[in-house]
Amino acid sequence: MEEYGKHVLSIEGRKILKLEGVQHVGSFDEHEITLDTNMGFLQLKGEGMHITHLNLDQGSLVVEGFIHGLEYLEGRTAKGSKARSKGFIHRLLK
């Protein structure tokens, strides 16, 4: 089994999400947060979500709001997701 480092995710009452293993936050608003973790790309969906704590040196993140769901997606990164989508739209509109 491959070693990825510490990766811990906990959700308290669907209102507080705590995550260890965060490497990069790609985008965030009240309905969606995308991030790279040491276990892959993670997409959080919810309502009224706010990042209340972020420490990339320690890899920790705390999100408060109402969590609808989360999904790990293979073959995608938070760093390049916006740049790729802008490039695709730009090519369509040429």
TrEMBL record:
Protein name: Sporulation protein YabP
Organism for this UniProt entry: Desulforamulus hydrothermalis Lam5 = DSM 18033
Upper classification of the organism: Bacteria, Bacillati, Bacillota, Clostridia, Eubacteriales
InterPro entries: Spore_YabP (IPR012504), Spore_YabP/YqfC (IPR022476), YabP_sf (IPR038705)
GO BP term (any one): sporulation resulting in formation of a cellular spore
